Amino acid sequence: MPRTAVRNVYLNYEIVGQGEALVLLHGLGSRLEDWRAQTAYFSKSYKVIAVDFRGHGHSDKPSGPYSIPMFADDILHLLDQLGVDQFHLAGFSMGGMTAFQLAVNQPQRLKSLTIINSSPCVPYQTLSEKMTVWGRLGCIHLLGMARLGKLIGRNLFPRAEQKPLYDEFLATMKHNDVEAYIHSLKSFLGWDVTSRLHRLSMPVLVVSADHDYTPVSHKQRYCEHIPNCQLHVIEDSRHATPLDQPERLNGVVDAFLRSTQPDFSPQ
């Protein structure tokens, strides 16, 4: 996979397929390979561009701090270098936050926006909110990334038949750079673009797993602030919907993307 210099880092990316550009942004501690089910499916109709964020995968892992606006600027500069002016954008978890940031900054560049198990804000004010983060940071410092991976993985993939997904997730977590992971985790604490959601003039799809970290009601509330937004719930899914329900997710996103085409007519 190619790497290219974007500002002060080299970013790793993958381009598969031809057609309108569909950009995929992964979550915290993840990598572009985790979109493999989506890349294989959508590359039949789109030019799929998946990117490793700075600090992740095979991209550079510079010293921090990191921020969601920084991630968004990295992606935008990469797309500029690739000559991609307009594109469909899909982001999962931290990638969804970055997608929100990019969309409110440059709404004219997006043909559509898909948000998967994410939010336009991450409150970091109450003791409960801070203790959740402190607990994860404490686990990293005291027990390491492998132990953190086990704790998170058991929640993401609890069923016996999901063991291959659990094992792959654990292997990915083990290979994460500790400092880069911490910088990435801290990047979204207190981040908030809720007041700018009215700028999203493009069609927006919000996908929520029925057992995501945040309830469906949270997504319903912020969808009310987006002019052209639809919400779809994926049943029998936890936070890692692109991995635990890839077929259902692909079908929902495919139908949404087709509905954004000028010649689309519902059956």
TrEMBL record:
A single GO cellular-component term on record: membrane
Record keywords: Hydrolase
One term of GO molecular function: hydrolase activity
Matching InterPro entries: AB_hydrolase_1, AB_hydrolase_fold, AB_hydrolase_sf
Top-rank taxon: Bacteria
Protein's UniProt keywords contain Transcription: no
Coiled-coil stretches noted in the UniProt entry, renumbered to this chain: none
AB hydrolase-1 domain boundaries: 21-244
Entries under Pfam families matching the protein: Abhydrolase_1 (PF00561)
The protein, known as: Alpha/beta fold hydrolase
Organism: Pseudomaricurvus hydrocarbonicus
